[in-house]
## 1
Amino acid sequence: MPNEPVTDLALNTISINKQALVFVNTKRSAEAVAEKISKKSAGNAKTNELAEKILKVLSKPTKQCKRLAECVKKGVAFHHSGLHSKQRELIEEAFKEGIIKIISCTPTLAAGLDLPAFRTIIRDVKRFSFNGMTNIPVLEFLQMCVPYEEKIITNKGNIPIGEIVEKKIKCKVLSFNIKTKKFEFKPVEQYFKRETNKLIELTTEKGYKLKLTEEHPVRVNNIWKPAKKIKEGDKCNINVEYSDYHNLNRHYQKEEECVGLKITKKKIIKYPEKIDVYNLKVKDNENYFASNFLVHNCGRAGRPSFDKWGEAIVIANSDAEKQALIEHYLLGEPEEIYSKLAVEPVLRVYLLSLIVSKVIRTPEDIFDFFSRTFWAFQFKDMNKLKQIIRKVLKMLERWGFIQFVDDEYFRATIIGKRVSELYLDPATAIQLIKGIKAATSNVKDFAWLHLLSGTLEMRPLLRVKTKEFEEFEQLTLKFEGELLLPEPSMFEPEYNDWLNAFKTASMIHDWIEEKDDEWILEKYDCRPGETRAKLNKSDWLVYSCEELSRLLGKMNLISPLKKVRLRLKHGVKEELLPLIKFEGIGRARARKLFRAGIKDAGDVKKARFETLSNILTTKIATNLKKQVGAPGRPERLDKF
């Protein structure tokens, strides 16, 4: 029986000693494709060692862990958001080292990772969205990297890259032929643009500066290196000025190409709002000079740190589909970029943060500031924009996060300042505040988890399936009158979200009731990576509740909330909290000690060393005794 095209391409990649990324649209597909390829490939001692590390990430490996380990033994892996972060890290590093040859993945791997993928195989160009199955954006085929103002050396002078892209200027840009060591003007073939809120700024000893995205390669030390991996002290290869370009080939006819300008400073710049960044596709040499630095115009396939060229292959099932793919992705224009400020939750967050930081104070300041944003440029109707801003300002004022002082300027309240410092959506903050005001020190942990699960920050929620509807409705009766998030009528549109929040809270509650990853995967179809993501967000939101409780004078809630945080961190019942504070004791060891009647530090101190050794190990028993200041392993007298 013949193989599928994806399998054949993957096996061919391995046969020529190269590596490939296979992109599919679901987690299940990523796993299934990896398994199919692994059955036809072979591993080695290094892949077997890696498989063992994969299995040991979780104290009790799930079926997913075992499935991944079996694939890894054959030099193949799957990668998606459901994997534990440590497993993803192991796979990524092994791929960079050439141990893993094929990764079958969802788009979680496409964002900003510099991996040696000689070949990119895209099996699925459609993925599930709120509107059903839709095409992946053209932008996901592209990778852009330099902000608007960075100057490009062209045959028409120095021109900002943003201007070249926005106006689609037909020009030739100065590039460098790595093989011949010659400078050449090459035509721009394509123009690209996207958004980011994080850049890296490099500065040389002569003061040249360049801002670019962290994954973008720069020529340093005679190799291409992603900006995030460049270190202070690295030598920038060729750093020239426009006025010099006509003499370059005369000056640089040498065996070595490195001029030797050191990178003296590297810093990360984060922007409160996403900015546009740009890239060019340059004919032949595939590089150009941005603000006097030689940078590469690379894509996902054939990363310049690893390959001189690469392949990007999209699977088509018919000639008609092939033509449609060419027209849409290869010849089509990238989608329009829309300002995130048009989304109300984002506008709420940034408007409050700007008032807190005193960047803007008066209504005139506010309107003037936003009139200069990309949102205003795109929206065009300033009167409508002002109405939207006024609506959000009134909302923030009604919630008590800002005050309009003397009808002149806005000032953040103490609680508004803390909400901004906690990076909370003000709508989430007001929901938490309402819950805190209604809470007593006797509120059950589940009620807190349900309150957190009802926030926007916890999206996407676990969805209650049709066959589960009755089950979870029955479960809600156990907490009648005890929840902090009021239950809407089942006929209201908000009811489904409320019930989905209940299911999400149930999953997290089962975790802190010591259910393991396999149980949660089977019960909720929630993989370890997804579980950890929910736990991390829950920890942040519980901490936010602690801070808001202090400001609201609800000091009686601090201790219960700290207890919830500890349970979230360690995944234990309340009875194990005195034990998990010991170094080297997790929930499995704590449970063993508790079952043996050792329930707190006093019991550890009183317990015989041999008893602790039998429950755990001699090494751990010695460490426990040391932590409570008791004698460790008794010394034995030598027999004469």
## 2
Amino acid sequence: MNYSHYFRRCTFVNDEFFLLKKLALLFLKRIPRNERGCHYDSVLSFVSSDDILSLIEYHLDPKLAISWLEFRWCAQAIALFQKNVSSALQEKIGSLSAEERRAKTVLKFLSCNDKCRDVNNELKAIKQQLLSNERLEAILYLTSRKIASVVGPGLSLADLRFNYSSGAAVGVKGGYTSSLYKFNGKFVANEELCCVFRYLGRKGLFPRWLQDVEYTPCGISKLFTVPKNCTSDRTCAKEPKDNVIVQKALGNFLRARMSKVLDLNLSKNQAYHQELACEGSVSGDLVTIDLSSASDSISYELVNWVFPDWLVHLLELCRTRSTSIENNGKDYFVNLEMFSMMGNGYTFELESLLFYSICSAAIYDFDGNTNPRLVVYGDDIITEKRYNSVVIEALTLCGFTINVKKTNVDGPFRESCGGDYFLGHAVRPFYIKDSLTPARIVALLNFYYGSYIYGILYCFFSPYLPAMFKNFGPADRGDGHIHCNQWKDYQDIKEPRIASNDVDSLCSGHEIDFYETIIALPLTPSPIQSFDYERALLSVGLSNLMQTKMHCLEDDLFPENHVRDPYIIRNLKTKKAKLMRISRPGVHNKLSPVIELYAVMRKVLPEVAPHIHDMMSP
């Protein structure tokens, strides 16, 4: 059976709009009668009258909510439609089509580029003393000092970690975006980088394949859009694939320096941001600040002013200076006044360091505090409430626009890095972003696992979920099955163990159980090539646990780690598999998932099992 088709792409709902409407009403009924205020009345009215466009545009002001329950369930009712780009639903409610959303987004991008041009002209005029803005100059001076203290006096080739990303890029087609394909293709980069890499290859400073590879100069990125919600998209850029090698290396360098000097770990800071957002929603002492089109608002001259010259030169070396925009089958080229776009390998780290430094400079200029409570993750900023006005003023002076709807200074609500909190209560809703496939229904059920509404939702969705997908399993093993405490009672699996000496020896002292779930595996080429077994490892989401045994491997080697929609897996075959769950009572053993992974691979990809066993060996 083609589980990929049915589980991830097909919907078994005849009238999806009607079902979502019923579901929205079900959530609204969870609000106690004495806590139903103006938000409840408005949302109920929009849903009942099928006025979904008004529902989507409705601003759920937390200051007007009677309680966290009213806010939570009203937010969840809106979230069923707000980011849903299902074509059937869009046609039903009469919202913008995909082409209209793209056109709207491209116009916004061009507007941001024009604004960056204005900022560039202003900064050039200040440098040439044609204009005077003492406040801005003071902020930029302090910002440049902070950045210089973080990045240090320079770097060497040994400080850079070169690796591909798993994203789309100029030079690769379709979903073939893993390193397996990028290494085998032509070397596609701007002319400056082609010259640099030729030189490094001749000097033996890089692998010998650089001497023989075919070089294809390309200094232009390609703009594309991805759905953000049902009324707009977000822009991203396909960079030349080998520009990204250097971009990511510089991004990794900035990330390491921020972690070392500022104790700002961008790899793990999301959870910390959520903790601070929760704290701020209770105490009110912390504020969350969000920026609109942050990465598209970083002007070239701003970076040139506040970053050291040696680093600007390296950033400029691998930067694309223009992008192409397709319109009616023709490509139009736009010179970039912004420094970089999303899709560039160092944009996230660059903006994180830039925003942190601007905020730090504003605070120091305000009261001399050199160690404020300040954390930054991309354009998500959290700081103390007393510094709110000076931080916002500094960011505005530097050409950035505050997202007022997502900036929370007063009231009981704080939002940061995917965490929404109302007086300490988690109120983040589950967003349905496309058709109600079995995969999305299962993910929605699992999202509310542990909540009192879990059983109500299961009864609601049970008629729409085919029996072949009503598999129950452990809550710590993904969304290929429905989470359940008593999952063992629902598993009709008779095998007590796996008949394998090597697995048995590794499982000594552990309890072994089996469960059925839906797993995704890569469509590997035939015959098996090098690195294919690594892609198989990531396909069940356990590569991080094997980092110590896979010294040279990175998550971004694999295409299945980069998907637009987490419930639609491209270039994968999906199958129902019988997996092993290993546990040791009272002991937290990181090896258990690795043993399970080995057992899975032995069954579903026996060709690669020897490679995995070798990596697991001491």
## 3
Amino acid sequence: MVKSLVLLAATASLALHAVGTRPVAPTDHRLTDTRDPNREPHPPRRPHKRRIRGPPRSDHRRAQAGLRAPVEQAIAHLVGAWPLHRWRGMVFASGTSTAPPSPLACPSSTSTATVLVSWQSSSAEQGEDAVPVQGCKVVVAGGGIGGMTAALLLGSAGASVRLLERVAEPAAVGAGILLQPNGLAVLYALGLGEELRRAAWRTPPAAIRNPTGSVLLELPLPDFGAGLDHGLVLRRSHLHGVLLAAVRAHPAITVQLGTQVAWVSPGGTVRSRRQGVEAESTADLVVGADGAASTVRAGGDFGAVARATGARYVRALVPSTDDRLGWGEYWTPLGLFGGAPLGDGSTYLYLDATAPAVARALAEQDLDGFRRLWAAALPPAASLLEGLGGVEELLVNRVVRVDCRRWVDGRLVLVGDAAHAMAPNLGQGANSAIVDAAVLAAELATDQPVTQALGRYAARRRPAVGWVQDAADRLARLSRVSNPILRWGRDVALRRLGRLATGPRQQQRVQQEDPVWLHATARTLVGEEGHRPTD
């Protein structure tokens, strides 16, 4: 009985500690009334509220949840184990659009391209659609992963693309990166799979463990089909180099390195600066892929809020082939610690640096103190930490969350961190940017006005990625619990109900789009077979 009371208190406190309330906004019911004007008056309807993001949690669901044990209620809310709502199939019909001419219409083109017309099923039908993006002048601001992927897909769809990157000799910022099936689907379709796999480690099923190595939660990766049943861990610099070589070789893309975007307008005007010389040009479409501190976002009205979360993470590469830690994460009193071998004699490490003692050691450049703290929290990591050469080799990232009420303003559109910077705990930051690029290109490659295509892109991506942002925040808070009683309650809850958050439906929601659809659509945009995932 005492144990049950302690568990109840622990999980309730954990829920209050880790989960806040989300803002709600009144729903606008101002619709055109076409009913009989002589009808009997109807009493006014009480306005209701809806969530900005995420599936609704109605009163009857709350009542049903009340039948669960307290542990089940807490963990279901904390890890976001909501039922997956049915996605409505979207059919892009061929033919001529009846929409009025768009002020953003690109120059007309008689060319056509075949695009996939269903994103609900892996066996999508195909149709012939005119491609409004053909002939468009597109400026992509930012030469990161999302920006280069967008340039490749839009260039392949027929646009004339200028890729502007402020760094003259670009090098990837970061140590390692995990590519998941949604990101891999697009990159494989671009024909980059062989080069990526040449210096990458194929991930087995992962797990979350406590400091003693006991498994709290298995993290299986479903087989989405077409060989998309795995992830790849590789150096971020390798991924960046592969993408840079691809955009440089693409005939429709002009790469301008050392060129900073200084100002943009919703009308498509771009003012850039290179070696102190300013230039101004106009584009049919400006893609803001320039990160959390986006200049493109600052030039439009996106209703953006950028918020520092207070969390910090350290990433590093160490010379080691020690795989005693296994693949996955350890949740310790200092936060999470994870690592993965890269297959080249080095190991990618990522760990939480938010705890006051760890943050103080980093601020004081005390590498020995940093090692001691983590060796005490997770003894098996001590040998890996000895491979750290100095504090200057550690990449410390402060987590910023970006939320935008709108992703489109006139000729400006956002992708990646510029639209939705998030916590790294689901490993979906770069992967989501790649998905953004694929969905944006797919929508623009349909027979609809550009304004409508941009609106459909934003409507389709914003809710999906917003759910991932929220889920990553919840995981971050869960992994950082330091109180021993609360950690015990969290661990018990994860063991009992963690499967609710890791089933195929929830995994599909993390991927945001069907990876098979992403691969087929990107391959069609490229206009050639590309590489199958299993090559």
